[in-house]
Amino acid sequence: CACTTTSTSTSTSISTSTTVTLVPTRVRARAPVLVSSMAMKRPAAAAPVAKRRRQRPAPSGSPGLCVAGEALIDFFPRETKDGESCYLPKAGGSPFNVCIAARRLGLPVHFFGGLSTDMFGQDLHNQLGRESVDLSLVQRVARPTTLAFVSKAVGNADVKYAFFKENAADRSLTSKDSIKAMEGQSFGAVHMSLGAVTFEDKQMAQAFSELFSIAQSKGAFTSFDPNIRCTMIERGAHEYRKNVEEFMGLVDVAKASDADIEFLYGEGADLSTVAEKWLKLGARLVVITRGAQGAVAYYRPAPETLASCAASPPTQQPNTIDARGRCAPVSDTVGAGDTCTGGLLFGLLGGAGALSLAPQLAGGAAWDNAATGRLQEILRLAVAAAAINVSRQGCDPPTHEE
After folding, report:
1. 192, 70 in Cβ contact below 8 A?
2. I need a surface site. Which of 55, 125, 139, 331 has the fewest CB within 10 A?
3. Are 386 and 340 within 8 A, CB to CB?
4. Where is 163: in which H helix or E strand?
5. Which secondary-structure segment (H or E) carries 19?
6. How many CB atoms neighbour CB 206 within 10 A?
7. Taking all residues of the chain, what is their mean pLDDT, rounded to a whole number?
8. Following DSSP, what letter does each residue of 128-152 receive, concatenated?
């Protein structure tokens, strides 16, 4: 899975599901590409980021994962036996889903967030407990649970959401809560996804910033998914992009969908250009999911070199695969990105005894051949997990055995 940069264009097949392409820096290439870039000036924001990263301790060596953010109830459209419309409630929320995806693959996982004391909050608490997620960092709050109603067009597996979230329990975290949660804890990684909660909630944004800052100071790598829900962004894409880019200085792994990129940077935005910008702002790995086309990961094997690798799901379009690897129809896409994130974190932390990439992400070690080969393997596992998930209703991530 290793390759070297050359000055001429060439393509090397990695497997039936992964490819790496080498192109000159001036060519605007679609992902996946390996770009040997020309010397360029760092943006003004990059200098303090570089200074901060030099002061970080060695990776903690912990296999543990902490996931922070919202937990809510999704309501899925269904029909009664009499043909009347109704909704089926199911526990969800991006961070909640990532917890379960990573835990089913085998990682020790803590959830850090606010859960309501109402019946929905109790259901969320119980389900995390059944999945063996550590709940010692959970705060029970006498506020309502966020509710999300899901809609799906006929003949289309993609979904849309309507949120009811005012004064909800999952919006109760503060900077002080983050400080308290990290006391005496040692994690290999700390992940946060947005969604119904956005950076426009200043209290939550400050809590997440504090959490990531402390996590990095204790040897963990940080992982972030903007998980854009357009209807939740009040000030528009331009202002929200500033929030995301400012936060990127505290991020080691940035994961986003191509739809997130389109919202933030406009239709037709070049994925490699956005990834390169995020890497300059502080990230050490950028992973962009592309729906049925899989995912592409961008990193820097050298200071002025942008590299990428990609993986496609082992499927035959328009179908996906089930847990036995058989061709299966797509049920819906709920939780596909979260399942992919759980798979990424499992691999990056060295789940199941494999090589951990924490030295590259938390310690700044070089992306050598062993690390880039491992990244390819991790990407394949993550997109395969997501492919299995979409064969089932709602977010239902596979186990490691599956």
Report:
1. no
2. 55
3. yes
4. strand 159-164
5. strand 19-24
6. 15
7. 87
8. HHHTT-B-TT-EEESSPPPEEEEEE
Query: Mean pLDDT throughout 379-394?
Result: 95
Burial of 91 per CB tally in 10 Å (0-12, 13-18, 19+): buried
Percent of the chain at pLDDT above 70? 85
Predicted pLDDT at 159 = 64
Which of helix, strand or coil describes residue 200?
A: coil
Q: Give one DSSP letter per residue of 312-359, joined into a string.
A: --S--TT-EE-TTS-EE-----TTHHHHHHHHHHHHHTTGGG----HH
Beta strands in 203-291 (DSSP E): 221-225, 253-257, 285-289
Report pLDDT digits (tens) over 267-314: 999 999 999 999 999 999 999 999 999 999 999 999 889 999 999 999
User: Using one digit for the tens of pLDDT, what is the confidence trace for 10-67?
Assistant: 333 333 344 443 333 333 333 333 333 333 333 343 344 444 455 799 999 999 999 9
CA distance 265 to 271: 10
Nearest to 376 by CA among 9, 19, 30, 5: 19
Where is average pLDDT lowest: 104-118, 145-159, 366-380?
145-159
Reading the block at residue 336, the tokens are 């596909």
239: left (phi over 0), alpha (psi -120 to 50) or beta: alpha
Give me 300's structure tokens.
């820097």
Q: Could you identify the residue written with the tokens 């942008």?
A: 306
Going by their DSSP bridges, the two strands 147-152 and 305-311 should be labelled as: unpaired
Contacts for 2 with CB less than 8 Å, ≥ 6 apart: 369, 372, 373
The single residue listed with the structure tokens 């109830």 is 73
Helices 237-247 and 258-265 cross at an angle (nearest 10°) of 120
With vertex at residue 363, the alpha carbon angle to CA 352 and CA 107, rounded to the nearest 5 degrees, is 25
Backbone phi and psi for residue 376, each to the nearest 5 degrees, phi listed first: -60, -45
* Residues 6 or more apart in contact with residue 187 via CB below 8 angstroms: 60, 62, 64, 65, 66, 110, 215, 218, 220
Query: What distance in Å separates the CA atoms of residue 210 and residue 221, rounded to the nearest whole number?
Result: 14
DSSP code at position 396? -
Q: Which helix (H) or strand (E) holds 387?
A: helix 369-389
- Tens digit of pLDDT for each residue in 328-369? 999 888 899 999 999 999 999 999 999 999 999 999 999 999
